[in-house]
Design brief:
Elements: H1 6-18, E1 22-26, H2 29-42, E2 57-60, E3 66-68, E4 72-74, H3 80-93, E5 96-98, E6 109-115, E7 118-120, E8 125-129, H4 133-138, E9 142-150, E10 154-155, H5 162-170, E11 180-183, E12 188-189, E13 197-198, E14 205-211
Parallel strand pairs: 1-14, 4-5, 4-6, 6-9, 7-10, 9-14
Antiparallel strand pairs: 2-3, 7-8, 8-11, 12-13
């Protein structure tokens, strides 16, 4: 594992803030998991943007859509031990914690948790391995996307990660699909009458947790 470069951490944090990402430096995975639970508890209820039979619905949200009564956290990228810890914390709050089956919640969930492979300081970007469909969905259908990134895995710019991208492509010579996602800030578009809108194609918020070396 490469050493932490404080200058890259500082540059990444500054660039991520410029694209409206919330960056938090935390000392451990346990602290990161608790952060996810706290964010879920403090946010407004998720709006159901499509019909989801069997789901208990609450009052209409800001977009005049019914809200989801039970809060949902999805963390398909966690290993078994970390997921068990997160699930326990969620259950104490009455939240549903998912590791798979996200196709059943396409109307929208509260918080999706992902782990980044690396970060790019020049743009405040996180790169994720999203070969798994549930991992892809966790970052697409959540109102708040939380991404965990090791400080030691922050690189200066895109050219500096070219070798790792080649390795990912070479690892899939058997014909299997390769999905690599680059995330820079929350979802944003100005396609409609050139008016900037947040959350149209994905999360309303992006939170990036920078972990100390050895804790991701």
């Amino acid at each position: 594992m490469p050493p932490v470069n404080p200058e890259l951490v500082e540059a990444f944090t500054a660039k991520a803030a410029l694209v409206n990402a919330v960056v938090q430096e935390l000392p451990s995975m346990a602290a990161a998991l608790q952060y996810v639970v706290d964010v879920c508890e403090s946010k407004a209820p998720a709006e159901l943007l499509a019909d989801e039979p069997g789901t208990e619905k609450g009052p209409l949200g800001p977009n005049k859509c019914p809200t989801r009564v039970q809060r949902v956290v999805a963390a398909p990228g966690l290993d078994a031990a970390d997921f068990a810890e997160l699930q326990k914390a969620c259950e104490e709050k009455g939240f549903l914690c998912l590791r798979d089956g996200l196709r059943g919640y396409l109307a929208g969930i509260d918080v999706g948790l992902s782990k980044a492979v690396l970060g790019v300081a020049a743009s405040g970007t996180c790169m994720l391995d999203t070969d798994n469909e549930d991992v892809r969905l966790a970052g697409m259908i959540s109102e708040i996307n939380v991404v965990i990134l090791r400080k030691s895995e922050i690189y200066p710019d895109l050219p500096s990660i070219a070798g790792q991208l080649r390795e990912r492509m070479n690892d899939h010579k058997d014909g299997a699909g390769t999905f690599t996602t680059f995330v820079t800030g929350p979802s944003r578009t100005a396609d409609i009458e050139r008016v900037a809108a947040v959350g149209v194609h994905g999360p309303l918020e992006l939170h990036i947790i920078l972990l100390e070396e050895g804790h991701a």
